[in-house]
Amino acid sequence: EPEVTQTPSHQVTQMGQEVILRCVPISNHLYFYWYRQILGQKVEFLVSFYNNEISEKSEIFDDQFSVERPDGSNFTLKIRSTKLEDSAMYFCASSETKGVGQPQHFGDGTRLSIL
Amino acid sequence: DQQVKQNSPSLSVQEGRISILNCDYTNSMFDYFLWYKKYPAEGPTFLISISSIKDKNEDGRFTVFLNKSAKHLSLHIVPSQPGDSAVYFCAATGYNFNKFYFGSGTKLNVKP
């Protein structure tokens, strides 16, 4: 069964450094998402992306965050200047269509640790 | 932004018995509801869904019930197995939404 893959599985970065989290969505999917889960807390929506542009973003997704689909297969999340509170599991998800009728499929996440 | 709530952080059930996980939502615009299962160190895995035109959807041991008037859905697992031990998230979305709203999760422990 096709799956969403994320790399790296664990990223350790010094505060203030830039980090790029990578995702390869399922190949025929058109909608892409990033979520994060701080340890012990709920899964929080960050951003949705369709047709090479952001469809929606949350308050968490400030100017330090950006997303890109640099080629036909990768979907990346960049954090420009990481803060301690960015430490979390970051999940990428994709779906064939938007919203109703199609589940989002998640990758196994990247654990981001900011020192 | 507590549009989807799971009020029970944990649930413990004996193997072979029924597990019932509950979820409440506040937004009447939600049309589509899902349950995800999450093991440690893995991403959420889609389990089962239901659209607002139905009140029940069944897939093997898993059944989701939707009560639109109460804005409540539940997941029933019968019979429960130790391998079902995981965190279960409910999620909701609608035609006009670009994202899913997730509950905070319920950790299910099925005891052998």
Could you give the topology of this structure?
The complex is a heterodimer of chains A (115) and B (112).
Chain A: E1 5-7, E2 10-13, E3 19-24, E4 31-37, E5 43-50, E6 53-57, E7 65-68, E8 75-79, E9 88-95, E10 105-106, E11 110-114
Chain B: E1 4-5, E2 10-14, E3 19-25, E4 32-38, E5 45-51, E6 56-59, E7 62-67, E8 72-77, E9 86-93, E10 101-102, E11 106-111
Parallel strand pairs in B: 2-11
Antiparallel strand pairs in B: 1-3, 3-8, 4-5, 4-9, 6-7, 7-8, 9-10, 9-11
Can you put this structure into words, describing what you see?
The complex is a heterodimer of chains A (115) and B (112). Chain A is mainly β and 115 residues long. In chain A, 0% of the residues lie in helices and 50% in strands. Chain A contains no helices and 11 strands. Chain A has strands at residues 5-7, 10-13, 19-24, 31-37, 43-50, 53-57, 65-68, 75-79, 88-95, 105-106, 110-114. In chain A, strands 2, 4, 5, 6, 9, 10 and 11 form a 7-stranded mixed beta sheet that branches. In chain A, a hairpin with a 6-residue loop joins strand 7 (65-68) and strand 8 (75-79). Chain A is globular, with a radius of gyration of 13 Å. Chain A starts with a strand and ends with a strand. In chain A, 36% of the residues are buried. The mean pLDDT of chain A is 92. Chain B is an all-beta fold and 112 residues long. Chain B is built from no helices and 11 strands. In chain B, the strands form 2 sheets. In chain B, strands 2, 4, 5, 9, 10 and 11 form a 6-stranded mixed beta sheet that branches. Chain B has a 5-stranded antiparallel beta sheet with strand order 1-3-8-7-6, with no helix packed on it. The mean pLDDT of chain B is 94.
Quick recap:
By secondary structure, chain A is mainly β. Chain A has strands at 5-7, 10-13, 19-24, 31-37, 43-50, 53-57, 65-68, 75-79, 88-95, 105-106, 110-114.
